[in-house]
Amino acid sequence: MRRDKALLEEGGQVLWRRQLALLQQTGAGEIFLSARADQAWAETAEGFAGVVRDAVPNAGPLGGITAALERCGEGHLAVLAVDLPHMRADWFAELHKHCAPGVGAVGRNGQFFEPLAAIYPRELLPLAQAALERRELSLQKLLAAGVAQGLLRVREIGDGEKPFFTNWNEPT
């Protein structure tokens, strides 16, 4: 995109602040900001319990999710990408209904998981670390393994929910 998506605005609010407010609405305990080393603004972003840097550089979202799971003090980690400006707190409330101790939940749209608005159990950490070690960076494969091992439950995404997952990957 050639610019930092977190600093784009939606409705007069920068995306990182919007997503922080959404996670606060869900009742999340500790909220961390996952940011790359080159995102200097993240160090002064208010409202977070801290900044999490990727476990392995250049590993895409898997690097950030793995680092967050390593730091997670709770049994579950809610992940919300900054570039999902239409996501709603009630999505996470619905996902939470599918969670249990040691089991998280992820949405699926057809054959594809939506890994960046999901709730992961800490028990997924060994699978994520192993994927990083193999440089197998596909979240789709990781989540399929998590489902196969009973660590994740799948919630099919309804037609009315599909707009929640529209992301900003192209400049406007």
Quick overview of this protein structure:
The chain is of the alpha/beta class and 172 residues long. The protein is built from 5 helices and 8 strands; from the N terminus they run E-E-H-E-E-H-E-H-E-E-H-H-E.
Description:
The longest helix has 12 residues. The chain is of the alpha/beta class. The strands form three sheets. The chain has a four-stranded mixed sheet with strand order 5-7-6-8, sandwiched between helices. The N and C termini lie close together (9 Å). It has five helices and eight strands; from the N terminus they run ββαββαβαββααβ.
CATH class: Alpha Beta
Poorly predicted tracts of residues: none
Which secondary-structure class do the elements indicate? alpha/beta
CATH architecture: Alpha-Beta Complex
Q: How confident overall, as mean pLDDT?
A: 89
What is the overall silhouette?
A: globular
Instruction: Please summarize the sheet with the most strands.
Output: 4 strands, mixed
Number of helices: 5
Rg over C-alpha atoms, rounded to the nearest angstrom: 15 Å
Would you spell out the secondary-structure blueprint of this structure?
Layout lengths: L8 E2 L2 E2 H11 L6 E3 L15 E3 L7 H12 L4 E5 L8 H8 L7 E6 L2 E10 L3 H9 L5 H10 L3 E5 L16
Parallel strand pairs: 3-4, 6-8
Antiparallel strand pairs: 1-2, 5-7, 6-7
Helix pairs in contact: 2-4
Keywords:
two-stranded antiparallel sheet, alpha/beta, 5 helices, four-stranded mixed sheet, Spore Coat Polysaccharide Biosynthesis Protein SpsA, Chain A
